[in-house]
Amino acid sequence: MGKFENAIHEMCAIENQAGEDDFLNNIHALAKLFVTVLYVCMVTSFPKYNVTGLVGMIIYPLIIFNLGDIKFGKCIKRIRLILPLICIIGIFNPFFDRNVLLTMGGVKITGGEISMVTLMIKGILAVIAIYILIITTTIDRVCMALRKIHIPEIIVMIIQLIYRYINVLLKETKRIVEAYSLRAPDQKGINFKAWGSLPGQLLLRSIDRATDVHNSMSLRGYNFNNVRIRNYKLSSRDYVWMILWTLVIIAFRVYPVFEIVGGLFT
């Protein structure tokens, strides 16, 4: 299976898993969106040297992975392309902040090295939290949650259609690459001379396919305001979910819970 087939297969697998009928998926999208935004805000608000407190925030993805039977290995595999970009963010910190903050086994650890690790952990936890939202909530439910908090309809519509058209773009790219490889079977990769024309063809073909999809949706009476999602109104379970996670996340942000618990056994 080629790269594009893998990408299309992964998108379908994520959407199918998000549409499953289980406890975590049936939590209202607005409740999960609220918890995700709160978690990301709390994670990014940690001071740059507070690594121990930041590690305590792992409690949220750890519980959700077990509660929703989400595979950690598959999560890392799917976000592996983003992880190097996250790690690059703070890679220059050790060069600018050379103040020695602590010494472990004769090894001096500078503030830049600690802040670099802190930034990496923040980015990884934030991406994992967003992945959890995507893997447990369909794009339609996310869009309806955005409308419920009065995000402008045009913005929500653009988000929804962009997500839908990613699959169209991947399929058109797959067809173009396959056609090119059939015309140049002995050539490895795409010749640089074709780098200008192929993206142009991809753009034109994608626009044509997107126009066909839009016309088909319009002929079938598609209207964003007419879409109805099950469990649109928040239930008592959804409010309990938001309140419990709000208390847990704020508690782990304000208090060094792990240090307090560890101090009870020493």
Automatic annotation (TrEMBL):
Give the residue spans that cross the bilayer.
49-67, 79-96, 116-139, 239-258
An example of a Gene Ontology BP annotation on this entry? cobalt ion transport
Q: InterPro entries of this UniProt entry?
A: ABC/ECF_trnsptr_transmembrane, ECF_CbiQ, ECF_transporter_component
- Point out the coiled-coil segments of this chain: none
Q: Tell me, in one coarse class, where this protein mainly resides.
A: membrane
Q: Which UniProt keywords apply?
A: Cell membrane, Membrane, Transmembrane, Transmembrane helix
Q: Its domain of life?
A: Bacteria
Q: Looking at the UniProt record for this protein, which Gene Ontology cellular component terms does it annotate, in alphabetical order?
A: ATP-binding cassette (ABC) transporter complex
UniProt subcellular location:
Cell membrane
| Pfam families on file | CbiQ
Q: Could you tell me the membrane topology recorded for this protein?
A: Multi-pass membrane protein
Protein known as: Cobalt ECF transporter T component CbiQ
